[in-house]
Amino acid sequence: MDVRTISPAEHLAFLRTRSSASFLQTPAWGQVKAEWRRESLGWYDGDRLAGVALVLYRQLPKVKRYLAYLPEGPVIDWDTEQLAAWLTPLAAHLRKQGAFGVRMGPPVVTRRWTAAQVKEGIADAGVRRLGDLPPTERDATGARVVTQLHELGWRPQVTDGGFAAGQPQYVFQVPLVDADGKPRSEDDVLKGMNQLWRRNIKKAAKEGVTVTVGTDLEAFHELYVHTARRDHFTPRPLSYFRTMVDALSAEDPDRIRLWFAHHQGDLVAATIAVRVGTHAWYSYGASSTEKREVRGSNAVQWAMLQDAIAAGAEVYDLRGITDTLDAEDSHVGLIQFKVGTGGEAVEYAGEWDLPLNRVLYQAFDLYMKRR
C-alpha cells in the first residue's frame, strides 16, 4: 500500500462509491474545522485507490509538530487480518508531515444492546453500566480490529462514561433495515417505539405542531443558545454553524438539513440532520422551555426519521450517549429519551493513539490530562 495526498475531488469521488462513511471523514468537514490544517489522503494498491481519509493537524504551541487526527476514520477495509498493511504506511506519511502522534477512531462496532435491555438495566439497581449487561451482539470485525491495534502499538483512549474530547464511543441508533437487510416501513419503525414516544408524536400532531425543513440558521441558533443555558453546556457560535451548513451543503445538497417544529407560530424545537449515503445522523438539537407539553422534540425527531426512511437510509443515528445505566446519574435522562425510539445502544472501538515521537507525545498527553 502506498499512502499519498489526494485532491478533495478524488476523496469525495471515492466516498461516493461506498454505501456510507462518517460525515467527519468528508472533505467538507475539513473546512468546518478551520482551526486545524487539513489533508485528504489516499491508499493506493498499485494504481487503484483503495481507501481514503481526512486528516486534521493540530499544531503544538511554538513548535511545528502536530497531532494528526482522523475522526471516525479512516475509510479503509477494516475487515482485514492485515491491518498493518494499511496503518504502517499511514504512520510513515504522517511522520513526514511533522506529526508527533496519530489519533483515530476506527468506525467499527464492538457490541450492541437492545432498547429493552437498556430499559431493564436502568430499572435494575445492580446494573451501573452498559458493560454490566451481556450484549445482544459481539462484532467479530470489531474484536479483530481491537486485537490488531494493541499488537501494532496503538493505545486506547480511556474515557469517562464514553464521552471524550473527540467522538463518542457509545451511540444510540435506530436500524432502518431488518435482519435480512430489507427496508423497514414507517409503521414498523413507529411500532418499535415505546408507548410514551408514540403518544407524544400523536399529541404533537393533535396540538397542531408543524415540522418543516428550513434555512433560518439564526432562529435555530437562538433556540440552541437558550437550550445551552437551560441544560448547562457551552454553545458553539453562530459562525460555526454557518460554516458547517455552507461547507456540507456545497459538497452535496442533500448532506445537511435544518428542521423546525412550530406551534401556533412559536418555534418549539429545531434540529440539524446530516446524511452520507445510507447513514443519517441527528447532529444538533434545541428545544424551548415553554410549550414543552406540545412535544415538539418528538415531532421533529419523527419527521427526521421519516425523511431518512424515504431517502433509503439504513440507520438513523442519534449520536452520543454515556454508558451509564445508573438511575441516579444526571446523564441517564439522555439515554432514556433515545431508548424510547426503540433502537439499540452501540459501542464502537473508541479512539486510539499511536505515538510517533514519544517525548512530545508524553508531554502532550500530560498536558491533556491536566486540562
UniProtKB/TrEMBL annotation:
<dbReference type="InterPro" id="IPR003447">
    <property type="entry name" value="FEMABX"/>
</dbReference>
<keyword id="KW-0808">Transferase</keyword>
<keyword id="KW-0012">Acyltransferase</keyword>
<dbReference type="GO" id="GO:0071555">
    <property type="term" value="P:cell wall organization"/>
</dbReference>
<comment type="similarity">
    <text>Belongs to the FemABX family.</text>
</comment>
<dbReference type="InterPro" id="IPR016181">
    <property type="entry name" value="Acyl_CoA_acyltransferase"/>
</dbReference>
<keyword id="KW-0573">Peptidoglycan synthesis</keyword>
<dbReference type="GO" id="GO:0016755">
    <property type="term" value="F:aminoacyltransferase activity"/>
</dbReference>
<dbReference type="GO" id="GO:0008360">
    <property type="term" value="P:regulation of cell shape"/>
</dbReference>
<keyword id="KW-0961">Cell wall biogenesis/degradation</keyword>
<dbReference type="Pfam" id="PF02388">
    <property type="entry name" value="FemAB"/>
</dbReference>
<dbReference type="InterPro" id="IPR050644">
    <property type="entry name" value="PG_Glycine_Bridge_Synth"/>
</dbReference>
<protein>
    <submittedName>
        <fullName>Lipid II:glycine glycyltransferase (Peptidoglycan interpeptide bridge formation enzyme)</fullName>
    </submittedName>
</protein>
<keyword id="KW-0133">Cell shape</keyword>
<dbReference type="GO" id="GO:0009252">
    <property type="term" value="P:peptidoglycan biosynthetic process"/>
</dbReference>
